[in-house]
Amino acid sequence: MPFSTQKRKGTISGILFVAIFAAAATMIADISFVRSLGISPLVIGIVMGIFYANTLHNHIPSEWSTGITFSGKKILRFAIVFYGFRITFQQIADVGMEGFMVSLIMLSTTFILGTYLGYKIFKMDKETSMLTASGASVCGAAAVLATEPVLKAEGHKTAVAVSMVVLFGTISMFLYPVLYASIIEPAVGFLHMSPQEFGIYVGGTIHEVAQVVAVPASIMGAPVDMANSAVIVKMTRVIMIAPMLIVLGIYLSYSAKKSGGEAGGVSLVIPWFAVYFIGMAGFNSLGIVPQNIVEIINEIDTFLLTMAMTALGMGTIFSKFKGLGLAPLYTAGAMFLWLVIGGFVVTKLVVETF
Q1: Averaged pLDDT, 274-279
Q2: 273 is in which domain, residue-wise?
Q3: Domain annotation covers residue 227
Q4: pLDDT by residue (tens digit) across 26-39?
Q5: Is residue 343 part of a domain?
Q6: Is residue 124 left, alpha or beta, with left meaning phi > 0 and alpha meaning psi from -120 to 50?
Q7: Do 246 and 270 touch, CB atoms closer than 8 A?
Q8: 8 Å CB contact between 219 and 228
Q9: Quick one: 209 exposed, middle or buried, by C-beta within 10 A (0-12, 13-18, 19+)?
Q10: 63, 84, 80, 62: which is closest to 72 by C-alpha?
């Protein structure tokens, strides 16, 4: 037990150690240049954690490891639950059936495609494949973090998935403003999109929430309805992480029983933190908590997520990456092409249908 009499002091010291790193990551992310790039403190936290893991990790007491592990496991789940305060059911209703369907189709197809390509075609292990797919299909680093405890994956696999989110999410931030001119300007043809449709396309296909916010902000004269549609569709994808994780838990349980036989005694694994996440979003939808309090909760939650990401980075040793080669890059690249090209086609078809 991390807080037993023997381990309590080391656990608390480890948590405080991670918190110092997370505070530094938060301050770096608040620098105007870094903020303009849409880089979240979560990403900076894992980079700092990885740097520490591969340089200075032998220079702290081993007793602190329980606190680092606690930050990467328990604090993570707590933070995912309170991530629900970023979403209301009313936001999802406002975007309409078009936004919901684009979110559902892109999430499910991207996750299935990424898992299949990573595991079957590029020969990665199943956990890394699923983590990489979850980051691309849902909400970037936060989705990778939420999926990690369901898969019970090792920290270095999480780091691989997050690095792919960072790479291709950053590319998206520069690519989509360029696409905007070719998609919005034409008066006729299949390539034409209204600003609201383009917002749905952005929200349904870009990795991180911060990156979705950054794209309309970087386009001169972007209409408000484009930015609103992008953010709401993105948050619809975010809330879908809960049912996705529940379905994933059922699938993993079924697969374990099938491979181990009836005598395997494998019980159904339900990620309860995902269920609580939906409950928290429902509670937030009631509007009982004042908005200024919600903003404070979200700031604290972002810090806790940064702590969790930093802790995962601290467990990432480069030597563990041997054997993966370019498979994660190929897998994430294929999903990126699907998100950009397939997402455009899906958005057009869905909008025309509904």
Answers
A1: 78
A2: 8-353
A3: yes
A4: 999 888 888 777 67
A5: yes
A6: beta
A7: yes
A8: no
A9: buried
A10: 80
Tell me which residue of 312, 310, 21, 43 sits closest to 156, measured CA to CA. Answer: 312
Domain presence at residue 2: no
DSSP-derived secondary structure for 179-215 = HHHHHHS-SSSTT---HHHHHHHHHHH-S-HHHHHHH
Q: What is the pLDDT of residue 214?
A: 67
Tell me the two tokens of residue 103.
């979110």
pLDDT in tens, 190-227: 668 888 889 899 989 988 776 777 677 667 666 767 87
User: DSSP characters for 210-266?
Assistant: HHHHHHHHHSTT--HHHHHHHHHHHHHHHHTHHHHHHHHHHHHHHHHHHHH-GGG-P
Q: How many domains does the chain have?
A: 1
128: tokens are 């890394």
pTM of the model: 0.70
Domain annotation covers residue 1? no
Token pair, residue 73, equals 């496991």
